[in-house]
Amino acid sequence: MTTPLTATTDYEELRARWGDVAWVELEPGVGAWLVMGYQEILTITRQEKLYSRDARNWRLFQEGVVPPDSGLGPMMFWRPNVIGADGGEHRRLRRPLDDGVAAIDQRRMRRSVEGMCADLIAGFRDKGSADLVGEYAAVIPMLAIADLFGLDVTQGHELLAALRALFGSAEDSQAGNKKFEEILGGIMHARQQDPAEDLTSRFLRHHDLNGDAEVLQSMVVMISAAQETTTTWISQTLRLVLTDPRFAGRMRGGRLGVDDALDEVLWRDPPMTNMPARYALRDTELGGRRIARGDALVLGLAAANADPSAHTGEAVIELGNRAHLAWSAGPHACPAPVPARLITRTAVETALHLLPDVRLAVAPDELTPHPSPWTRCPAALPVLFGDH
Q1: Ordered domains of the chain (ranges, CATH)
Q2: Do the strands 382-384 and 129-131 form a parallel or antiparallel pair, or are they unpaired?
Q3: Quick one: three-class SS letters along 209-244?
Q4: Is the pLDDT of residue 121 over 80?
Q5: What is d(CA 310, CA 305) in angstroms, rounded to the nearest whole number?
Q6: Which of 41, 270, 326, 343 is most buried, most CB within 10 Å of its CB?
């Protein structure tokens, strides 16, 4: 029986049954290989000539098993952007992203994010309760990223709603994707008429991007990836602090800092639980499984981080270990771990500072992940503070 891939998939059970490479179901009738071995993921991510990022190689799509209106489309179908390219074409499309990240003024970003966090907390502090996902963690990255691209607050919230649908890979996924691109197309055309010192304008004048379509898709990649992953990282770190007495006590006691909490989350609950996808360019073997040409392989980043081969078993040595695969590996590794950490650290530190008595309003086992095969961000993080 094939295991459906969801936010609550039991990776230990899958590993016991299949080993490091398991056959899973992405949606009814659509299967893929979930790669859970640490070394196997390194093998895939470093061999572009065997494992392509170009979804046009996906056999089940070529054969019509995956319909064009599938909810998997926005996350798995080919797009003319950096995610769907290999080799020299990938490096050309990657350069504008790397240059854009390098141009970020980190001091300005930190001050801006601190102000956003303080304003959000001020908006709910008097009522003594909040959902730290919906009212905080999900809002901060989008406002920060929208600011970088020249979008206003209203547009940032519209983007957030569209992205929630896109990453859910459900019936409204295609509509969310369409709305997302419409909003970004609007700011792109505005900046063509009135350039500014923002990332939209930088992309428009970057010599490696040819035409509006490539500029738009570069914006799509950078914003969508940053929003979902940073929201999840903030949410999971706050969940860890609020639900794990061992960790919360040590951090608040000064023996571990926020960065240690961030690293703990990157190992245990990385922002992207499962990363779509690579496509085999020929028949091969991986982790003892026969992989057929055109098979899809999903990178099980959370499962690989739990692979015993990636750990020493010594707590002292493990502290500060950043050999996790939370950002993937190889040419397609995340280009922005530094600004992502800056936003996440600032959001967590500000919440703990301004809400020193914050506590969970429900039992920890009542927290459930937002439905998605790709991430397991808590759907909500209800908390109380003050006299409530």
Answers
A1: 3-384 (1.10.630.10)
A2: antiparallel
A3: CCHHHHHHHHHHHHHHHHHHHHHHHHHHHHHHHHHC
A4: yes
A5: 7
A6: 41
